[in-house]
Amino acid sequence: EPEVTQTPSHQVTQMGQEVILRCVPISNHLYFYWYRQILGQKVEFLVSFYNNEISEKSEIFDDQFSVERPDGSNFTLKIRSTKLEDSAMYFCASSATWGFLNTGELFFGEGSRLTVL
Amino acid sequence: QKEVEQNSGPLSVPEGAIASLNCTYSDRGSQSFFWYRQYSGKSPELIMFIYSNGDKEDGRFTAQLNKASQYVSLLIRDSQPSDSATYLCAVNPRGYSGAGSYQLTFGKGTKLSVIP
After folding, report:
1. Which one of A57, A78, A105, B9 is CB 3.0 to 4.6 Å from B110, fit for a cystine?
2. CA–CA gap between residue B45 and residue A35 (Å, rounded)
3. Is B29 buried (19+), middle (13-18) or exposed (0-12) by CB count in 10 A?
4. What part of A 9-68 touches B (C-beta under 8 Å)?
5. Is residue A100 over pLDDT 60?
6. Which residues from chain A sit within 8 angstroms of residue B106, using beta carbons?
7. Does A104 touch chain B (CB under 8 A)?
8. pLDDT tens digit sequence for A16-69
9. Which residues, 6 or more positions from B38, have their beta carbon under 8 angstroms from its beta carbon?
10. How distant, in Å, are the alpha carbons of A3, A28, A62, B40 from that of B113?
């Protein structure tokens, strides 16, 4: 069964360091996403990406964040200068969204836990 | 601000009973509604989605939607210990036939515990 894969599963970094989280979405999906979940809190939308550009982003997704699809398979989230409050589980997801293919399902990866010290 | 509210629980039910999970949302323009299950430390997993008012059944699960009351619920019949998890309600402004991204707004989740 196709799945979204994420690396690393856990990353520990020092405050102020740059972090790149990587994701391989499901191959025939068109939209890619990053969501995050601070421990004990809600899952929050960060950004969606379609046709090699940002489709939508939340107010959380400020200038410290960027996304990129550097090749045909990977989708990355970069945090330029990490803060303590960036500590969270980051979920990559993908969906097939054209009308008749719209199953209503957002497929999540297993997540990358980021700990900022 | 769009809000999705759920009772945090924990909701404890005996094995074999019906578990009833509720969710309300603030954005009257919301069009599609999702229930996800999340085991501790794991990613959300879709249980059901619903777009139209009324009931939608899938195996032991029934989702109910009332757009006028801005209310969504999930019933789990014949609850099993393996159903013990946190159940997340999520809403999307776009409907079934609309192309577009899933900018989902999630509730905080209801923790369900099924007692053997």
Report:
1. B9
2. 14
3. exposed
4. 31, 33, 35, 41-45, 48, 50, 55-56, 58
5. no
6. 42-44
7. yes
8. 999 999 999 998 888 899 999 999 999 999 999 988 899 889 999 999 999 999
9. B44, B45, B85, B86, B87, B88, B109
10. 28, 37, 38, 12
Q: What is the 3-state secondary structure (H, E, C) of chain B?
A: CCCEECCCCCEEEECCCCEEEEEEECCCCCCEEEEEEECCCCCCEEEEEECCCEEEEECCEEEEEECCCCEEEEEECCCCHHHCEEEEEEEECCCCCCCCCCCCEECCCEEEEEEC
Cα angle, residue B47 at apex, residues A88 and A59 outer, rounded to 5°: 35
Cβ–Cβ under 8 Å, residues A105 and A1? no
Collapse the DSSP code of A99 into the 3-class scheme (helix H, G, I; strand E, B; otherwise coil) and give the result.
Answer: helix
Where does residue B29 fall: left (phi above 0), alpha (psi -120 to 50 degrees), or beta otherwise? Answer: alpha
d(Cα B47, Cα A1) in Å, to the nearest integer? 17
The pLDDT confidence band at residue A99, using thresholds 50, 70 and 90, is: very low
- As a whole number of angstroms, the distance between CA A92 and CA A9 comes to 12
Q: Residues in chain B whose beta carbon is closer than 8 A to a beta carbon of chain A?
A: 32, 34, 42-46, 49, 51, 88, 90, 96-109
DSSP A49-84: EETTEEEEE-TT--TTEEEE--SSS-EEEEESS--G
